[in-house]
Amino acid sequence: LQCLPLAELASRFQQKLGGATAYVHEGFKHLSPLFGAIATWGYWVAWIPGVAVNLTLASTYIEAAFLPGINTLALTLGLALALYALNSLGLRPSVWLSGVMAACAILPLGIILIAPLFRPDTWRWEHLTPLVPAGISAALLAKWAFVAVWSSYGAEMVATVVGELRDPRR
Q1: How far apart are CA 61 and CA 56, in angstroms?
Q2: How far, in Å, are 11, 38, 45, 54, 126 from residue 112 at the CA level?
Q3: Which is more confidently placed, 138 or 76?
Q4: Fewest CB within 10 angstroms: 22, 86, 108, 134, which?
Q5: Which of 135, 157, 151, 160 is nearest to 49 (CA)?
């Protein structure tokens, strides 16, 4: 449902880059440019912790599943530098790599999501253990998972680059 209004705004403001915050500025600049500034500030205040949480969760999982004993903070910083380097190459390589990673994740994710429907005994809380640090409750994990999932939500991100597309209206 969120994609439909964003698509409409993207088609109305084809010359604008920046997604929802740019659309807020365009829509309310006749009242005050302060609306755009507040929207931009709120957007980045919400995203900054999300990036850190996602990088830390990814590093913790990689360490637990594949590289036991590696320093999680060092791995987090390494991932951050690698992603920064990739992004510095431009949009095309980043989008291409994101597509490859998404394609590689679809099959395992589908199996993980569908298997408990056919075999309920396959779902166990212990299967998430690499993600659950000792002493963390399920409620606390669910709260941080919400932050991680929300911040990785990609539909709004399309609106930030739609002005660079050849035919954004299509």
Answers
A1: 9
A2: 37, 40, 33, 20, 14
A3: 76
A4: 134
A5: 151
Q: What is the reported pLDDT for 18?
A: 76
- Phi, psi for 42 (deg, rounded to 5): -60, -35
The yes-or-no verdict on residue 71 having pLDDT over 90 is yes
pLDDT tens-place string over residues 76-118: 999 999 989 988 888 788 888 888 888 888 888 888 778 888 8
- C-beta separation of 140 from 149 below 8 A: no
Q: Report the distance separating Cα 127 and Cα 116, nearest Å.
A: 12
Q: What is the pTM of this model?
A: 0.53
